[in-house]
What does this fold into?
Amino acid sequence: MPHMRAVRPGDDAALSEICLRTADHGSDAAGIFDDDDIWGAVFVLPYAERHPDFAFVVADDDDRAIGYVVATPDTDVFEEWFRAEWWPRFADRWPEPSPDDTSRQAGTLRYAYGRRPGAEPLAEAYPAHLHIDLLPAAQGQGWGRRLIDRVSEQLRASGVTRLHLVASAANAGALAFYDRLGFERLPSSPGAQAFGIDLAR
It folds into this structure.
């Protein structure tokens, strides 16, 4: 039976796989980039390394992660760490793209190179943020709600009461899920939908 547990150091490969298999607006993104590893290095692994206390997985009968939630309690502090300590590890592997490169990979790499304190306007009102992804084997069973409840409980215990996330505007299932959980839709960039919630309510 699937079960929930804290993230462990040995989960990195599974976390990256989950991220990859859900990165294309909730669908499999394998082959979209020249290197599939970009997805995990930007959107899940830094959180698991920096904040294992805010990282939880759904695991299968073999204890392999099939879904995760990762979060940071302070977006601006996290973004400074990402800029100064995490992303420089990958500069040689994935150089900053040229301005005339309009590919989706280039856009994601530009996002990674541009991460810094103050870059996320939602961080002032909603200082915490999360990422959550589940493989089909973990979907439709209430695990998404339980993962968000668990990380929200951990954030509240750390004194954090306001949380945001950003989803693809094309992922209708995810948008409906956050609506059901009581997240409020916030002003968003084209192609994205931001949500916020007051955890103290």
User: Anything to note?
Assistant: The helical segments are 12-22, 37-43, 45-50, 75-86, 104-114, 143-157, 172-180. The chain has a mean pLDDT of 96. Strands lie at 3-6, 55-59, 65-72, 128-134, 162-168, 184-186, 192-198.
